[in-house]
Amino acid sequence: MSTSVSKDPTPNGQQPVHTPAALIAFAWTLVGVPLAYGLYQTIKTASTLFTG
Amino acid sequence: MALPGFLRRERIVARPGFNRWLIPPAALAVHLCIGQAYATSVYKAALVEDFGTSQTAIGIVFSIAIVMLGLSAALFGTWVDRNGPRAAMFTSACFWVSGFLVGGLGIETGQLWLLYLGYGVLGGIGLGIGYISPVSTLIKWFPDRPGLATGMAIMGFGGGALIASPLSRQLMSYYDPAYDGTAGTVPNGDAVAALFFTLGAVYLVFMMFGAFIVRVPAEGWRPDGFDPSTVKQKALVTTESVSAKNAVKTPQFWLLWTVLFCNVTAGIGILEQASPMIQDFFRTGDSSTVAATAAAGFVGVLSLFNMAGRFAWSTTSDFIGRKPIYMVYLGGGLVLYVLLATVGSSATWLFVLLAAVIISFYGGGFATIPAYLRDLFGTYQVGAIHGRLLTAWSAAGVAGPLIVNSVLDTQGEPGSLVAANYRPALFIMVGLLAVGFVANLLVRPVASKWHEPHSDAATTPTPARSAAR
């Protein structure tokens, strides 16, 4: 997940940006938490196949 | 109609140094929301009771949504490719959320047509645009691992149902304390309407988040260490471009349409009947050795394999190739279906194992198709081509349940069926998978007459792109 960042502007004049690691972590958490909730609930339901 | 400035493609071109790992959560934010479409069974009984109508009348809501998904993906695919993922995600969110609001209003006022219009038509359009919105962007950000990238997003569609089912039960029991989520209790209509309004609000926030963090790579961008010339060396993988208009004129498009149709129809055959099917397979007389709660657990197992298959198989396709992986889905699925029909009733664990792997192939088929399209037609209008191909899903959504239900209707009454009664339907699915297997075998590289002409602007890579891995 490393990012190549140069401090020099590119030939077309654009300044490079550095995507904040916190933003990436926040974005993954925002989608990861509901997914983990759904997985947990589904595994709990699925376990009744073997226990119920 | 001109788009507002903040939605335009040129406003979301990533600057050098942008980290591409921000794109999968943007895609997931959309797919996790629209995946709710597979959780409609949670409130189906409540709607039947509230509207005082039949199962079929309520089931049509889902059918309309899936048909609209295919139609809108086909019709708006080119628009999505032209205007970029932010405009597409934003539009999808507006339609999807409007669908919940109008549908909720229909439930609240007892007008079924509003539910059809809201969740079915508006929501279905949101589904179609949302489903294809991040796909071509992901393929462009991950030219080295397109299967992994699209697998992540389309896994989210499977994951959306895993979230929406328990969340809906909990919300409905909150809005209607008399409902506790167990079998036999049904929430009232007001609780379902409140659920629709709540889901609409939550989905609006999530999808807009995805829309505002998504970016497209600059022209000529490529990841560090990725050499496009290695792509050329793989069989069936092109570096040429084919337009959506031309793609539908090629045999390859229709062969893949057949592949997707057969794979999805066969999967729906099990998914549609999962709960009664496992009970019927282990029925002796009037009772089954598989209890209703265990049957619900079986549905949960299938959901997990459906989701996991989307990610795992699609990622695997990056290593073994798209054509071979579809030989596994269709050929392997065919063998597993034969085993299910012949020895599936000998042990519960065997039945569950066979069905779970079949469903993982079903999910894998969905997730791998965008990468297969990229291989054959290039990235130029892959979103639009994918949109047109999704009409196969709509057709399968009608054909799958129709085949299974009409065959089972000839076999006896629900509650009295046994494993043998399922064999004709299962062998029809075997036949379909055989057709899909042959269609996949016939796939060859697209003839050069369909390739877009080269221009200097299109072929000259922009220098000194920075890359993010």
From TrEMBL, chain A:
TM regions (residue ranges): 20-40
Keyword terms, alphabetized: Membrane, Transmembrane, Transmembrane helix
Name listed for the protein in its UniProt record: Oxalate:formate antiporter
Source organism (scientific name): Geodermatophilus aquaeductus
Higher taxonomy: Bacteria, Bacillati, Actinomycetota, Actinomycetes, Geodermatophilales
From TrEMBL, chain B:
Gene Ontology MF, one: transmembrane transporter activity
Any Pfam family: MFS_1
Domain Major facilitator superfamily (MFS) profile positions: 1-448
Alphabetic keyword roster: Membrane, Transmembrane, Transmembrane helix
Gene3D superfamilies per the UniProt record, alphabetical: MFS general substrate transporter like domains
Membrane topology: Multi-pass membrane protein
GO annotations of cellular component type: plasma membrane
Transmembrane spans: 21-39, 59-80, 87-107, 113-135, 147-167, 191-214, 253-271, 291-313, 325-343, 349-373, 385-404, 424-443
Keyword field contains Membrane: yes
Subcellular location: Cell membrane
Alphabetized InterPro entries for the sequence: MFS, MFS_dom, MFS_trans_sf, Proton-linked_MCT
Domain of life: Bacteria
Name by which UniProt lists this protein: Nitrate/nitrite transporter NarK
Organism of origin: Geodermatophilus aquaeductus
